[in-house]
Fold Bifunctional protein GlmU.
Amino acid sequence: MRPDEPTDSAHPTLAVVVLAGGLGTRMRSRTAKELQPLAGRPLLSYVLEVAEAIEPAQRIVVLNPAKRAVLEILPPGWQVAWQEQPLGTGHALVQALPLLAPGIHRVLLLFGDHPLLTPADLRRLLSEVEERCPAVAVLTTVLEDPAAYGRIRRQDGRVVGVVEAREDTTSYRGPVEVVSGATCYDRRWLEEALPRLERSPSGEYYHTWLVELAARTPWSAEPAITVPASPETALGVNDRLDLARAEAIVRSRVAERLMRAGVAIVDPSTTFIDATVEIEPDARIEPFTIISGQSWIGEGSRIGPHAVVRDSRIGPECEVLASVLEEAILGSRVHVGPYAHLRPGTRVADDVHIGNYAELKNARVGRETRIGHFSYIGDAELGERVNIGAGTVTCNFDGVEKHRTVIEDDAFVGSDTMLIAPVRVGPGGRTGAGSVVNRDVPPGGLVVGVPARPIAARRARRRPEVRGE
C-alpha cells in the first residue's frame, strides 16, 4: 500500500490536516510557536497526539519552510504540505489538498496552536458529522469575551457564517459563540469551495469564510452546523500569556489524572508536574515541588516539599526532601536531603542515606552507604556500607582532566577528608579526620595526616572495670 492511500483505521475515509504554517510573531521567540515547551512537551505534540487518538486514515501537517525544525517532532506516518507564503488559514488548507488520498471523503482541520483539544471533543464532532452529514461542521464554545476568536453568525437559529475578530465591529452583551479549534469538511464540497475564497482586507484567506459559503450551498441536509465544546477547548496559543494559561490547564489535567490513579498530591496549585512524568500509586508529592522531563516516581515514595526532580528515576519508598535531582537514579528506600544536589550520572542503590548539603555528580553509590552532610562526591564509585564523613571531597579535577575515586565496601572516610583522584580506598579502609589522601589506601588500612600516611590501627579501647560489676 502506498503512503498516500488510506490505511485501516477507526475512520477509514477521514484525513486530519493540522495547520502549523503561521510564523507566530506574537510569541516573540526564536523558537517556533509549535515547539514552545508546554508542561514538558512541544506545544504541537498535543495536537498531533489528539489527532492520532481518533485514528484517521491520513495525517497531514502544513508547515512554512522557515519552521523545518518542526519536522523533528513529527511521528511516523505524517505527511507535510509546504506553505511557502503565510497567506492565511484558507491558503494553508489549499496546500494540503494535493496530498489527499483518493479514498478520503472528509477532512478534519485542526490548528497546531490549540493544544487543549481532547479526543472526546473530536469524537463528538465526528459523531455529529456522521449523523447529520453537513458540508461543514464547526466545533464551537461560548465565551463571555470573544477576544480574537471568530464569532458564529446565525439567522433564525441557523448558522450563516463566521465573522473574524479583526473584521467585527459588533459590541456584545453577554456570551458569544466562537470557533473552537476544529472544523470538519465534506471533501468534495471543500475542493469546489476553496477556489471561491476571497482575499480579506488584511491580505489573508480565512478558512472561516467557508462556513458562509456552505450556508449558501444547496445541500440535502443542513449545510453548516456547530458542535459545542468546553471553553478550555477554544484556547489558542498566540503569545506568552496564552502559553501560560494553557500550561496551567494542562498541569491541572496532569494532576487530576495522577490523583485519580492513586497519587497523593497535597497541594496541586503549588505543584508542577510535566505531562511526561510517571508516578506510581501511593506516592506522595508535597507542596512546592517540580517534577519534569522523563521522571518516574516509585510506589510509596515521598517527594518534597521544595524538591526539584528532572529526568530522574526514584524507586519505591524513597524520600526526597528539599533537594535537586537531575538525571539521577535512586533504588529503593533511599533518603535524600534536605538541600542535597544529585547531578547527572548519579546512581544510588537501595537503603542509602544522602544528607544535608551533599552534592553528587557522576557517582555510583552502593547499598546501605551513608553520606551524612557537607560533602562533594564527584566521578566516584562507592561500595556497600561506606561511611562518608562530613566535609569529604573527592578532588576529581586536576585542571586538565577529570579523575575517578573508588571507595570500596565497608570503608570509613573521616570528616574533612580530601581524596585526590585518581585514588582508591580498599575494603574496610579508613581515613582520619582532616586527611589529604593522594595514594591508595590498602584493604583494612588506616591513613591520617597531610599528606595522609598509613599508621597501625589502634586497638579498641577497653572499658575500665568498675568494682561491684
In short: Residues 240-260 form the longest helix (21 residues). Residues 1-6, 459-469 have pLDDT under 50 and may be disordered.
